[in-house]
From TrEMBL:
GO MF term list: DNA binding
Domain Type I restriction modification DNA specificity: 4-192, 223-380
SUPFAM superfamilies in the cross-refs: DNA methylase specificity domain
Keyword GTP-binding attached: no
Keyword Iron: no
Similarity remark: Belongs to the type-I restriction system S methylase family.
GO annotation (BP), single: DNA restriction-modification system
Protein name in the entry: Type I restriction enzyme, S subunit
Record key words, sorted: Coiled coil, DNA-binding, Restriction system
Organism: Halanaerobium congolense
């Protein structure tokens, strides 16, 4: 006897409406206006709305059939193979409220459920389940660097479906987990913004030091006892190491590249977290931090604090985030920042007492951020372990007899 024998099997095409995105022309792109959502704007489960390009508001009505709504489900039909999980083909995301009113670009398909049979939220978790991921990848085609999937393969996906009531109960469990993860991410963003505000207050506006003596420097007036010099006088700057895509995998030590986490590798380069700067591509100058025991590719500059100067990564990261990196970018077709160029950056170094006080404050914020990150990792593991069991009926949610429905 099957544990989900009361669930009926369906083909996806019988339960959804599907729509392809539009091939907007780059000549129409502009700095502001209506946002266009591309595959490159996908995060793990949402949309990075700040990275979207735009077209004129005057053209919105012309493309009204491509306007996105909150909770639309999007699938990327072009991307990478699983060795590069950040841009993997078949990635499934849900449109957040911030992206409502944006336009759907090519290489993405929108799915909407037929609500009389299938809950939109349950559909999302069906498509986030590893069974669908494996199905999509098995039918993907393409070259070593790019994979694609067909709309036909999406339509032909088969799965078993419980009653609407049970769909809602199951989806609510995962939604609650995802909501907690989202709230932790929002809290971390606020904490990171607080760190930047404190840095600016201390080291740009010098608010806590107004009663002290100030002296002239290459960066203007600074508190007496502080130093200014080229950044490479205080920090060791190196490139990461080249790593071929074929040597990445879906597990192991995290690999950081120009766009952040891009995959995994069997070895790590750095035992401790490092402050990184994207040095090639459209994100040139972006600042972020690697995790312990990670690999960093040569699309990043690695800023290692020099033990002799007592500069630590907490101050270093905030300094770089507050700096003008654009002036060190060269190249038009392929923007880049070289070690030679970035070494010309002038760095402000406070006295040790001030640095220690600042570090203590930022460490506390950082610890809260890391607690939230660890909680999110635990929640994701819980979600990912429950997902295949609840979506297959191996684990059933309790329903009152009078609440049970027939498909």
């Amino acid at each position: 006897m099957s544990f989900n024998e009361d669930w009926k099997e369906y083909k996806l095409e019988n339960l959804i409406k599907m729509q392809k995105g539009f091939a907007f022309k780059s000549k129409d792109y502009q700095e502001d206006g209506v946002k266009i959502v591309k595959v490159s704007n996908f995060t793990d489960d949402s949309i990075d709305i700040n990275s979207c390009t735009h077209i004129s508001e005057n053209k919105k009505n012309k493309y009204k059939k491509y306007i996105l709504e909150n909770n639309d489900i999007l699938i990327s039909t072009v991307g990478s193979w699983p060795s590069n999980p950040k841009s993997v083909v078949g990635k499934v995301i849900r449109v957040p409220i911030e992206a409502k009113g944006s336009l759907l670009n090519q290489n993405i398909v929108r799915l909407k459920s037929k609500p009389e049979k299938l809950s939109q939220l349950f559909l999302y978790y069906i498509l986030r389940n590893k069974d669908f991921k494996n199905y999509i990848i098995s039918g993907a085609r393409g070259s070593a660097n790019q994979a694609s999937i067909t709309l036909k393969s999406i339509r032909n996906y088969k799965f078993r479906l419980p009653s609407l009531r049970e769909q809602e109960e199951i989806a609510d469990i995962f939604f609650a987990i995802d909501k907690k993860i989202e709230n932790n991410n929002k809290m971390n963003k606020t904490l990171e913004e607080m760190a930047q505000v404190i840095y600016k207050n201390w080291f740009v506006d010098f608010e806590p030091f107004q009663e002290e003596e100030f002296v002239e420097s290459e960066l203007g007036m600074i508190p007496e006892g502080w130093k200014v010099g080229y950044i490479d006088e205080f920090i060791n700057i190196t490139y990461g190491k080249n790593l071929a895509k074929k040597n990445m995998s879906g597990s192991g030590y995290k690999v950081f590249s120009a766009s952040g986490l891009v995959g995994y590798h069997k070895e790590f380069l750095y035992k401790e977290p490092q402050v990184l700067m994207t040095c090639r591509g459209s994100g040139c100058g972006d600042i972020y931090e690697s995790t312990p025991k990670s690999f960093v590719t040569n699309n990043c500059l690695v800023f290692e604090a020099d033990e002799d100067t007592k500069i630590n990564r907490f101050y270093l990261k905030q300094f770089l985030l507050n700096s003008n990196r654009d002036q060190f970018i060269t190249g038009s077709a392929q923007p880049q920042i070289t070690i030679t160029n970035i070494s010309k950056m002038k760095m402000l170094v406070p006295d040790q007492k001030t640095l220690d006080k600042f570090t203590k404050i930022i460490k506390k914020l950082n610890n809260k951020i890391n607690i939230n990150k660890r909680e999110n990792q635990t929640l994701k593991k819980l979600r990912d372990s429950l997902l295949p069991k609840l979506m297959s009926g191996e684990i059933r949610v309790p329903l009152d007899k009078d609440e049970k429905e027939v498909n």
